[in-house]
Amino acid sequence: MTTRRAAIFDVDGTLVDTNHLHVVTWWEAFRQGGHRVPMRDIHRAVGLGGGDLIEYLLGKDRDPEDDERFVAAHHALYATYFDRLPALDAAGDLLRALAGRGWTIVLATSASGAELSALRRAIDADDVILGAASADDVTVGKPAPDPVRQARELADVPSERAVFVGDTVWDMKAAVRDGVLPVAVLSGGIPSEDLKTAGAQGVYRDPADLLAGLDTSVFADRE
């Protein structure tokens, strides 16, 4: 029986304070394409992969040929922030603290390529991050379990030996579907009750709050 344990982390809104940047840049991408989408609705969709986010907001009866244009516009707009993405307080310290306790650190994110590289630079903890399951590694994103499962397989642990930390309902649902214990942070702007309803077994204000409470968290229970 393996003694390894995996701490799997979402990135946007969980380790890096980017959710509202995504809201604004998706809003502008839709505006450029002739769609007026309320920012509150976009906020609720952040965390989904690009195609799923577009379908969630514009519906299945949209013209899917426009999807690639929306994705490209969002990426171009969001890329203007790559050199100044803000890590959330104590994000890197949290990952190092868990690694020091014997946890294998893996990321599970819908970002990929240059975007993922920019996010990892912001976190500045590559010395303890084993790897990342990105949009390039799965065909179906959250809330499907595939990204969490892929990250867990990178760490080579069964679901009962992993904890997943995220900030959206989609994160919690993906963790539940993979049998991984879900923990939530509020730094992405989603209400605590929504996260608990989706399966969160612990809710913290942000990475700094989780770091401060590690000794009484689900991580301590599984050590």
* Cα end-to-end separation: 15 Å
- Shape field: globular
H/E element string? EHHHHHEHEHEHEHEHH
- The CATH superfamily of the largest domain is known as HAD superfamily/HAD-like
Task: Going across the biggest sheet, name each strand in turn.
Answer: 3-2-1-4-5-6
What's the overall average pLDDT, rounded? 96
Largest sheet: 6 strands, parallel
Q: Roughly how many Å is the radius of gyration?
A: 17 Å
**CATH level-3 fold name of the largest domain:** Rossmann fold
Please tell me about this protein's structure.
There is one protein chain. The protein is an alpha/beta fold. The chain folds into 2 domains: 5-18 and 85-221, HAD superfamily/HAD-like (Rossmann fold), CATH 3.40.50.1000; 19-80, DNA polymerase, domain 1, CATH 1.10.150. It contains 11 helices and 6 strands. It has helices at residues 19-32, 39-45, 50-58, 67-79, 91-100, 113-123, 146-155, 169-178, 192-197, 207-212, 218-221; strands at residues 5-9, 103-108, 129-133, 162-166, 181-185, 203-204. Strands 3-2-1-4-5-6 form a 6-stranded parallel β-sheet, sandwiched between helices. α6 links the parallel β2 (103-108) and β3 (129-133). The longest helix is centred in the N-terminal third of the chain and has 14 residues, at 19-32. The radius of gyration is 17 Å and the shape is globular. The mean pLDDT is 96.
